[in-house]
UniProtKB/TrEMBL annotation:
PANTHER family: CONTACTIN 3B-RELATED, PROTEIN SIDEKICK. It comes from Alectura lathami. GO terms for cellular component: axon; plasma membrane. SMART domains: FN3. This is CNTN4 protein. It is found in: Cell membrane. Residues 1-79, 84-180 form the Fibronectin type-III domain. It holds the Pfam family fn3. Keywords: Cell adhesion, Cell membrane, Disulfide bond, Glycoprotein, Lipoprotein, Membrane, Repeat, Signal. GO terms for biological process: axon guidance; brain development.
Amino acid sequence: QTVPEELQNGGGFGYVVAFRPFGTISWMQTVVASPDASRYVFRNETLPPFSPYEVKVGVYNNKGEGSFSPVTVVYSAEEEPTRAPTTVLARSLSASDIEISWAPPRENQHKGRIQGYEVRCWSHDEKEENAKKIRTVGNQTSAKVTNLRGNMLYHLAVRAYNTAGTGPSSATVNVTTKKPRALKMGKDPTAVSVSAACASSSVSRSLQVLYRWNRQSSASVIETNRTSVELSLPFDEDYIIEIKPFSDGGDGSSSEQIRIPKISNAYARGAGASTSNACTLSAISTIMISLTARSSL
């Protein structure tokens, strides 16, 4: 930071920048004559990437030199990673989630630090430049990609990054998301009714209903302590619904997703498979959605 004029105590004010490679004894010095200067660039083409230097800055004017700042350590610029992550694996967790894992490049195969990894994910009907990107921090070597479309082929790749940029991409892996729970259509176009049975040793009096338009990434949530809840949905769009119990001790497991197709001359009934401590869904076509919680015991 520059020194204010009222503290310069005379004309001819400037700065003395002293620096040395970390661990060495002799200081190199240079003079920056402008009192408004706030930076100095030392150029040396032989400098290895990300080299540590000790730096201190002093001041002077026509009367002589002042004191130096405390010594701090700075680093020369680093290069982006030169090797790609290896052993990339991916698997579908649900109709909307994919898990991907990888192994980092070997230490002797890249220059500079690795600050984290960037996962790119794009569907088979999208261009790679429009890929969804997720960044991890540090040495984390797995990630979950969420809010995807069901029964869709996705391509995924990983690359390391640091302050200089991203390195080369790993080999691409392919995985298809699971099929969403769809409803069989019948005759009545009026509404959808959903019931939930929770597989646990006690009845959960608190339930969350999560629903979203199929093309949206974020879900709306309704919480209730009652045994039923009703909501209206447009019946010209596909909807995804999940139900899960919650309490002061935390959230329970979500039911599998159930898809409510566009309601058109339809009478629907379907069911989602249950999992441990999750809710089993069944659905009957109406405009209103009702919910009942009961013990499965």
